[in-house]
Amino acid sequence: MEPRTASLLDLFTEGRTRFTKVLDTLTAADLTKKLVPSPNSAGFLIRHIGDVELLFAKNVFGLQGVNVHASTVAKGHDTGEWTDLDALKAYVQESADTVRRAIEATPDADWDTVIETKEFGRKTKAEALGRIVTHTAYHAGQLAMVVKYG
Q1: Which CATH superfamily is domain 3-67+79-149 in?
Q2: Segments in the chain below pLDDT 50
Q3: What are the residue boundaries of the structural domains of the chain, listed by start?
Q4: Pairwise CA distance, residues 121 & 20, whole Å
Q5: Which of 24, 26, 38, 101 is most buried, by CB atoms within 10 Å?
Q6: How many angstroms separate the CA atoms of 5 and 23, rounded?
Q7: Are 78 and 39 in contact (CB under 8 A)?
Q8: What's residue 119's pLDDT?
Q9: What are phi and psi of 144, to 5 degrees?
């Protein structure tokens, strides 16, 4: 693996530990917890992280063969259906593995390639990676608060 790509893979892996450490402590009972007045449950937040990671791998990094139905994005709100802890953990493991494959498939020279999305405009692939890392960390913080105080 080329050096820049290897470093960015390390960044993604380390950045995601905020999320994985919270996941390791969850119980099925935690998934329906919410912080009033927020409409989003812990289960929704976990599913949302996975949805967005898969969307990034497919749409931002152009990884072929990614099958994603981003239900949290499509529905736009918590419907209360994300209550299977094992399924959610498997889903976010798949999303992490998919983003890792997308990063590994990106040569060093491609990190400065500019991509454009309607969600965040024009960014280099390196900047976009920063976006997904901070997105996951942001929601991991929310998840930790919901579990602790919900």
Answers
A1: dinb family like domain (1.20.120.450)
A2: none
A3: 3-67+79-149
A4: 29
A5: 26
A6: 26
A7: yes
A8: 82
A9: -60, -40
